[in-house]
Amino acid sequence: MSVALATQLREGTKKAHTMAENTGFVSCFLKGVVDKASYRKLVADLYFVYEAMEEEVNKLSKHPVVGPIGKKELNRLESLEQDLAFYFGEGWKEEIQPSQSAVTYVERIRTVARDSPELLVGHHYTRYMGDLSGGQILKSIAQKAMNMSGDDGLRFYVFNDITDEKAFKASYRSAMDQLPIDQATADRILEEANYAFRLNMRMFQELEGNLVAAIGKVLFGFLTRRQRAGSTEAATVA
Predict the structure, then answer these.
(1) I need a labelling partner for 228 at 20 to 30 A (CA). Which of 41, 204, 218, 220 fits?
(2) Domains and CATH numbers, the chain
(3) First and final CA of the chain: distance in angstroms?
């Protein structure tokens, strides 16, 4: 039966979305203050998160709830690998380590995939719809802030296999609404999506120390106060 899962997730994660945007790291990012060292650490953390996510979703490609939303056009792992090679060089795998918050995030994805696979839908929605919705805006901000041009180092935000973003998101939402779940399961997926936002926030918060060191405590405080006092309509950074 249909439980309008897409709408429930959109409406039910609004508060968490706003809270994520109001972390210091994201506030600064949206203001155009992006430190390259902090950004490449974020890319490294995201690599471990997406490696786990795409591995588990691929294993569950025949699962009646996970399979229909595991659209390969959204996959980010290859793009992240290209970005890591740009920032760290060809030996990037030996150069990166996940932060503690990324380790916790990965463990949650693995646990859910093993014990309650349907809850992966909450993680999938939180990550990929955020990436797709805000990708081009965030890419533009990062390009200007880090004085970069082209896609190199920013391929995470480039979806080469999606030519019509609006149509793709409509198809994704339609697939979610047709999943064979009841309202109780929808409630659990929504709860997991909100938890996914908190896991993302912890990654952003771990990056704040690096950013403060790069731009200074006074500027960091000014930028985050301005963001919290204003609108939070922009898309989440990652």
Answers:
(1) 41
(2) 5-229 (1.20.910.10)
(3) 32
